[in-house]
Amino acid sequence: MSDEVRSSQKAQSDEGGLSNLSHEDRRFPPPEELAASANVTAATYEQAAADPDAFWAEQAKRISWETEPTEVLDWSNPPFATWFADGTLNAAYNACDRHVEAGHGDRVAFYFEGEPGDTREITYAQLTTEVKQAANALIELGVEAGDRVAIYLPMIPEAVVAMLACARIGAPHTVVFGGFSSDALSSRILDCGVEVVITADGGYRRGAPSGLKPAVDEALTKCPDVRHVLVIRRTGQDVEMTEGRDLWWHEFVGQQSEEHTAEAFPAEHPLYIMYTSGSTGKPKGILHTTGGYLVGTSYTHWATFDLKPETDVFWTAADIGWVTGHSYLVYGPLVNGTTSVMYEGTPDTPHKGRWWEIIEKYRVTILYCAPTAIRTFMKWGSEFPEQFDLSSLRILGSVGEPINPEAYVWYRHVIGGDRTPVVDTWWQTETGMHMISPMPGVTSGKPGAAMTPVPGVSVDVVNDEAQSVPNGSGGYLVITKPWPSMLRTLWGDDQRFVDTYWSRFAGLYFAGDGAKRDDDGDIWFLGRVDDVMNVSGHRMSTTEIESALVSHPKVAEAAVVGASDPTTGQAIVAFVILRSEAGDGGPDVVAELRAHVAKEIGAIAKPRQIMVVEELPKTRSGKIMRRLLRDIAEHREVGDVTTLTDSSVMSLIKDNMDKPA
Ligand code: WTA
Q1: Region 172-192 average pLDDT
Q2: 199 known member of a binding site
Q3: Which residues, in sequence order, are CB contacts of 95 under 8 Å at separation 6+?
Q4: Cβ count near 611 (within 10 Å)
Q5: Which of 53, 403, 473, 488 could make an SS bond with 469 (beta carbons 3.0 to 4.6 A apart)?
C-alpha cells in the first residue's frame, strides 16, 4: 500500500470514521414492504453481471429515441468509448415534452422554495413551455448546436430551464457554481470558448441578497468573445446592463414563441462540460455526452432511490453547480418524470429547522444530501428535526464523501425514524452516475460502507501492481468496464484524459480514491490518494489553492493540505513562506491572504487556517512533504522525516504552531 493510502486511512481513523471498520457489526436489512415491491432485486444483479451490454441495451429503452440505437458499447479505441452511437435523441424532449405527451403535463416537476419564503410550483407542461421559449431566445442570439453556453445562477427554476434550453438546441452548457469568483468564471469561459452567458442579478444567501451580475461583468473584462449576457431578475438588486450585450431574461425570453420542435442529435453529441478540480492547478473540463449519460442517470436514479414517479417526492439538496445537481436534480429525475423539491438557500435560514419544515410541507419521500450537512445537523441537535413530521420519508441518500458510521446511524434514526434505508452513493463528476451504492430493497446496509457496485457496473480494489486485493485489505479503487455515463474526455485535452484516468493501470479507470474491502468483500472508501481535498463534499485541489496563494505579492511559497475536520470532512490548512520584502507581513496578513484566495477561486476555497512559516519540509528532490504538514495540521506526532533535506524544519514549524496566535 502506498504512503498516501496509508496516510489517508490514518486520517480517517483518527476522525473515528473507520476506526470501527473491523468491528462494525450493525446491519440494517431492507424493510419488508420496500423489498417486496423494490425496483431492483437480487435477480437484477445476476442479469446485469451475465451480460452487461445486454443489460444496458435494455436500460436504454427507458428513454425516448428518435432513432433507436442498434449499437451498445464500442470500446474498439480505448479509452475513448462510445455508447448507443447510432441512436439519435433530444435530451430536453426526454426531460419535458415526452411526459406531457404521455398525459402527465399536470404533474409537478418542481416545488421551488426560495430562501425568503417565496414558492413556485412548476408542472411538466409549464417547464416544457419555458424551455421552448428559452431555446427560441438562444437561437435568436445566434447560438447553434455545438456552441458552449455558460450558466452562472443561484438555485432558481430558471437554472433548470437554461440548462434544458441549451440541451434542446444541442449547445453544451457549462454551469459554474454561483459561489465561484469572477476569476474562476472567466477561466472556465475562456477554456471552453463561451460566447453567451446566462446569469441573474443575484440570489438569496443567509437571509440577504447576494450579487452575481457584478462578478460576470468583472469576468467579462477578460473574455472579449462573449457577445451576450441574459440576466434573470431574482433579487431586484441594481445591476449595470451593457448596451447591446446584456438582455433581461423576462423581457427577451418572455416574448419568445412557445412553439419549438426539438431536433434529434446523435447519442454522442456533447451535453455538457463540468469543471472539477484535479491534482494539478488547472480545473479539468469533464465532458458528458447525451445518450449514455441519460441512460446512466435515469437508470441509477430509478434504481438507487427505488423511485416510484407517481407517488414519490424527491429532494436532492445540492447545488446545480455540481454534478449531483446535474445528474440527480435535473437530468435523472426529469427523464424519469419525477416530482422534485428545489431549495434556494441555506439550511439555517431563517431557522435551523428549515429543511425539516420543507420535508413536512411537501411530504418529501426521498432525501439526498451530503454527510457534511448531516454532521452539521447532528451538531445543532435533534431538537430541530423533532419539531417536524418527517414520517413521509422512506429512503435517505448520502453523497460526496464517506459517511461516518455515527452520522449514518443518526441520519437513519433521527431523520428516518429507523424505517428508512440509507444509501451511501459513491461516484464522481467523471462517472456521471452512481457507481457503488447499496440498493434499498436488496442490501443489508452497513453504517459507513458504500457496499457494492450498482447493477451493470464492475469495480475492483487493486494494489500498486494492479492485482485485486484480498478481503480485509486496502488499495486503489478502479473501474474495470466502461459504463454508459462515463466522461468521454477532458474538454480540449485528450492526452490529459488518458494520463489522468487510464495510465496508472493498463485498461482500468483510476478513480483517485483509496478503498478497502472488508471481510465480506464490501467496499469502504478511505479518501483521495492524490492532491485533491474534499471539503464539505466539494472537490478542491491543493495545487490550485497553492497557486492562488503564490499569486499574492507577499507570498514566496505555499503548501496546502486537507486536515480532517469534524464538520466539513476535510478543512483547508495552508502553510506560507512570505517574501522577505513583506517583512513579517503585518498583523492582517492572514486575513489578506484568505480574502485573496476567495477572490481568485471563491469563498469556499478560503483556508480554515493559514500558518506563516520560515521553511517547508521538502524531500531531497524538492517535493513538499504534505504528509508531514498534515500531521501538524491534525496535531499528530510528526511521522518519518528521514527523507527530508533538513529535519529540523519540522520542529521549527511545530514550535511556530504551538505559539499562541
Ligand atoms: C468522493 C461527487 C466516499 C470521492 C458526486 C470521489 C465519496 C469524489 C463518495 C468525487 C462516497 C463522493 N463515499 N467518497 N459516497 N461520494 N466521494 O466529482 O473522493 O464532486 O472521488 O462528485 O468525492 O467528487 P465529485
Answers
A1: 95
A2: no
A3: 164, 167, 330, 331, 334, 335
A4: 18
A5: 473
